[in-house]
Structure formats: structure tokens, C-alpha cells
């Protein structure tokens, strides 16, 4: 899954979020137009190195990278530039409404809207806990 989306960067705060080794909080790339995977939380250091600043809007390119055994499907996000004013409207029209693709659950092909993204991002913040919970439910504790 690869593409471009219009996003707004926002500091990600939850009971499970914590600062990275450089003391920076995670950043959620919230899709406002276009299609994007729901795995869109970056460490504060990665967000800083890509130029994502909380409270600003950007055009963003994402590329699926090699799948991780621990974290599942992985994505790389590139900041293609700050978007302001009239550009926001023009890009929103070109990219279409925000559609967030659930890449956390391979059995469920349903897409959901940007309003559901933050809830899904909570799941992304703790993938190992999600795997343990699933193992308990299926009885596969090996």
C-alpha cells in the first residue's frame, strides 16, 4: 500500500504514549483527505527529522516497507511540504474524503473514516499487548 494523503500532525497523547529516548512525544499523522493506513503514529524523533510539526498540515507520501514480525505491516512517511490556506481546499478536492485503511486486522477489509483513526491508533500504540490479548482469546499461549 503506497500513496499520498493530506494530513494534520498532532501530538499523540494517551495513557500508553510516552516520550522517546530524545524526550519527544509521539506524533499522530491524522488523515484529512485521501487514503492512508491507520498505522500513522511516528516517534517524536522521526517526526522531527521528517519536519512534521504538531498543529500544521502537510501533503504526505507513505510507502509500505518490510513487514515486522513484532509489529506487522510497517509504513514509511515522507513530508512533501506544508500545506496552507487555499492549497488545503484544492488538495482535499483532488484527494477526496479521508479514508483510513485498517491494516491492523488482515481479516477485516472494511475501511473507516478519519473520525475512527484515533481509536485505531490506540491499538497501534501497543501491538504486542494486542497480540497477547488475541492469544489469550484463542487459547494459544505458546
Compact description:
With 142 residues, the protein is of the alpha+beta class. The protein is built from four helices and seven strands.
Give the SSE string: EEEHEEHEEHH
Rg = 15 Å
Contiguous helical run count: 4
Shape: globular
Mean pLDDT: 83
Unreliable stretches (pLDDT < 50, length at least 5) are: none
How many beta-strand segments? 7
- Kindly state the percentage of residues in helix: 25-40%
Number of domains: 1
**How many strands, which pairing sense, and closed or not: the largest β-sheet?**
7 strands, mixed
Give the distance, in angstroms, between the N- and C-terminal Cα atoms: 31 Å
Structural class: alpha+beta
Tell me what portion of residues adopts beta-strand conformation. Answer: 35-45%
Keywords, please?
alpha+beta
Show the helix and strand layout:
Layout: E1 2-11, E2 27-37, E3 41-42, H1 44-50, E4 57-68, E5 72-82, H2 85-95, E6 99-101, E7 111-112, H3 117-124, H4 127-138
Amino acid at each position: 500500500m503506497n500513496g499520498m494523503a493530506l494530513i494534520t500532525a498532532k501530538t499523540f497523547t494517551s495513557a500508553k504514549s510516552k516520550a522517546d529516548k530524545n524526550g519527544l512525544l509521539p506524533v499522530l499523522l491524522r488523515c484529512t483527505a485521501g487514503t492512508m493506513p491507520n498505522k500513522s503514529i511516528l516517534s517524536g524523533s522521526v517526526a522531527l527529522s521528517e519536519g512534521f510539526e504538531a498543529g500544521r498540515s502537510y501533503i504526505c507520501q507513505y510507502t509500505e516497507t518490510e513487514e515486522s514480525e513484532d509489529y506487522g505491516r510497517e509504513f514509511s512517511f515522507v513530508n512533501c511540504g506544508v500545506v496552507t490556506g487555499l492549497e488545503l481546499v484544492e488538495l482535499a478536492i483532488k484527494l477526496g474524503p479521508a479514508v483510513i485503511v485498517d491494516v491492523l486486522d488482515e481479516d477485516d477489509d472494511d475501511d473507516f473514516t478519519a473520525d475512527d483513526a484515533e481509536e485505531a491508533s490506540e491499538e497501534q500504540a501497543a501491538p504486542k499487548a494486542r497480540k497477547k490479548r488475541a492469544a489469550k482469546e484463542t487459547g494459544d499461549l505458546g
